[in-house]
Amino acid sequence: MSTLSILPYFPFQRVRITKQSVFPEAEISQLTAVPDERFRPICHACGSKAQRIYRHDKRSLRDLNLGSVRVWITCSYRKIACEPCNRIVVEDLGFFQPYSRVTHRLAAYIHERCKVLTVTEVAKHFGINWKTVKTIDTFFLERQYAQTEYQNLRIRAVDEISVKKGQRYLTVVLDYRSGRVVRVGKERTKETPGTFFAGMTEEQRQALEAIAMDMWDPYIHAVKKYVPHVKIVFDLFHGVSSFGKVIDKVRNAEYQKASKEDKDVLKGSKYLLLKNKRNIRRKKHREHRKQLLSLNETINTVLILKDKLKHIWTYTSRTWARKAIDEWSHAKLFCHEYVCKYAYKIQLRNLESR
C-alpha cells in the first residue's frame, strides 16, 4: 500500500478526508470522508441550518479518476430534521446530490463526455452502469433545456422524428434562422402544437411571422387558431414528401383496376415511383420503371406532376412562383382524385398568402 498523499486533489469544504488507501495493482483508490464539525449541517432543499440530527449514515461515492485509478469515497453524512421543509432530509455536503452515487464533478464530466460519445461508451469507460450514465445526462439536459425559450422567435419550423420502431413520434420545434431547438413535444397529436402556443405570451405570438411545416391538417388548424396572422410555409422536403403519399395512393388505386398481367408490372413499384429518376441505378429497376410508365398513363402523369412540383421551389420571384402553382393546380383536372385533393390544399395556401 502506497504512502503517497492525494488529499490536495479533494478540496471539499464541508468534509474532512480522514483516511486514504491507494492500491496501484488494482488501480483503485479508497478514501474515507466525514462531515467537518466546524459547519452546522444544512438542508439540501432549502439551505436552512438543522436544529436536530435524525441519524448518521454512510454512502460510497464514485469520484473522478486519477489517471487510470478509479477513486471511491466512503462518506459519512447526517439526516436532519428540517423545520421549514417539515421533513427528514439529507444534509448538503456540497459535493454530491442526495441519494446520488457519484460526486458533482464526476457527474459534470460524464455529461460532457455524453456530448461526443454514446451512453454505452461512456459507461464502459468509467465502469458504471449505463442507466446511471443516462440518468446523469438526463439531469443536466433537463436543467439546461427544461424551460422553453421563446425570445426572438420570428420564423419557426416544425417537424417530427420517429422514436425507435412503430408509430411513435416526437414533435420538434426549431428557430428557423438559427437552427436552435426551442421545444420537443413527446407526441405527434393534434393537441401537441397547442401546448407550444399556450406557453407564449400575446406579445411573443405577435412577433411570429412565419412557420415552416408539413401539410398535416392539425398543424394548420393550430396555427389558424392561435396565430392566424402567421404565414404558413410548406418547404420543399415536406411538400414533395406529402405528394409521395399521393403517388402511393394513386398506385394502389390503379393496381386494383389493373388486369392480372398489368398487376405483375405494378407489383413492387412503390419505391421506384417515390425515388428520383437519377437515384435509380440498377438497370432492371430502370427498365421496370420505364415499362410501368408506358403501361399506365395516370401514373405517368402523376410523376410528371411531381417533377413540376419540385420546380416550384426554385423560383426566387413570388409572382412567378404563384403563377407556377396556379398552372400546376390546373393540371389536376387531367389527373386523379387524390391529386385533386392535394392540389386544392396547395392552391388554398397560395390564395391565403396573397
From TrEMBL:
Protein name stated in the entry: ISL3 family transposase
Stored Pfam families: DDE_Tnp_ISL3, HTH_Tnp_ISL3
Source organism of this protein record: Candidatus Brocadia sapporoensis
Domain Transposase IS204/IS1001/IS1096/IS1165 DDE: 157-330
Domain Transposase IS204/IS1001/IS1096/IS1165 helix-turn-helix positions: 91-137
Leader sequence residues: none
Record-annotated membrane-spanning stretches: none
Superkingdom to which the source organism belongs: Bacteria
